[in-house]
Every structure is written in C-alpha cells, then in structure tokens.
Amino acid sequence: MGPVLIVDDEFGIVEAVRDLLSDEGYSTATALNGREALERMALERPSLVLLDYMMPLLNGPGVLDAMLRDPRLRDVPVVMMSASPAEFWQHLPCAGFLPKPFDIDQLLSLVHDIIGKPPRH
C-alpha cells in the first residue's frame, strides 16, 4: 500500500494530519503545494490523496485534473479538504470531502472507509 499523500499549503495542517495518520499506522508523504504533490506522485503512487482546495502554484482542482489525465493516477482516491463553501468543490469527482475545520474522528473515519485500516507492524 502506498502512502497517504497529504497536500496543503498550511504546514500546521500537514504536520497534524501526518502525525495523526502515522500514529494510526499509515505510511504518509506530504506536499505543500500542487506541483510538489504531482512530483511526489511521480516518485511513489499514493494509496490516497488528502488534497486542499486552495493552494498556490497549482490548486486542488488542478491537481485532480492532472491526476485524472494520468493513467497511473486516475484511480487513486482523492479527498478534497476545504474551508470554502461546498458549492465550490462538491461537484468534483472525489472519493470524499472534508470541510475545514474537521475533527480527528471525521478524518480517520473517511480514511478507514476509503482505504481500510492500516497494516499493523
């Protein structure tokens, strides 16, 4: 199973989500913008992408579009995270949505539902 890729331009969110998922037993990778996310996905195919909607360089919808055009990435599930109103992002072809702010239980439940519980070491 590839890592859960956490993509957000707010370092505090990336760090908190990474720590939480790592503590749960998931392998994680991080990116602070959309371009960096695509570079990371070129190196290692993620099992899930937690993707912020609004970011510099390349926003969430731009990353999602690039993933859908890439045969290697088009079936990777994406969860869009956003503080924007739902009408901005609810139409996007995503596996799930996390309105910001979200709580730990919401996040873990969505990750478990999409990719299952992590393998225990």
Short description:
The protein has helices at 11-24, 34-43, 60-69, 86-89, 104-115; strands at 4-7, 28-31, 48-52, 78-82, 96-99. It is an alpha/beta fold.
CATH topology: Rossmann fold
Strand content: 15-25%
Count of extended strands: 5
Which structural class should the secondary elements be placed in? Answer: alpha/beta
Cross-sheet strand order for the largest sheet:
2-1-3-4-5
Mean pLDDT: 94
**Number of helical elements:** 5
The CATH C-level name is Alpha Beta
Domain count = 1
Would you identify the CATH H-level superfamily? Answer: Response regulator
Give the termini separation: 13 Å
Main sheet: strands, sense, barrel: 5 strands, parallel
Main attributes?
Rossmann fold, 121 residues, Response regulator, 5 helices, 18% strand, CheY-like_superfamily, alpha/beta, Bact_response_regulator, Sig_transdc_resp-reg_receiver
Report on this structure.
- Keywords: Phosphoprotein.
- The modification 4-aspartylphosphate is found at residue 52.
- InterPro entries: Bact_response_regulator, CheY-like_superfamily, Sig_transdc_resp-reg_receiver.
- Residues 3-115 form the Response regulatory domain.
- It holds the Pfam family Response_reg.
- This protein has 121 residues and is α/β, with parallel strands linked by helices.
- It has a single domain (4-115), classed as Rossmann fold.
- The protein is 41% helix and 18% strand.
- The chain is built from 5 helices and 5 strands, in the order βαβαβαβαβα.
- The protein has helices at 11-24, 34-43, 60-69, 86-89, 104-115; strands spanning 4-7, 28-31, 48-52, 78-82, 96-99.
- It has a 5-stranded parallel beta sheet with strand order 2-1-3-4-5, sandwiched between helices.
- The chain is globular.
- The two termini are 13 Å apart.
- The relative contact order is 0.19.
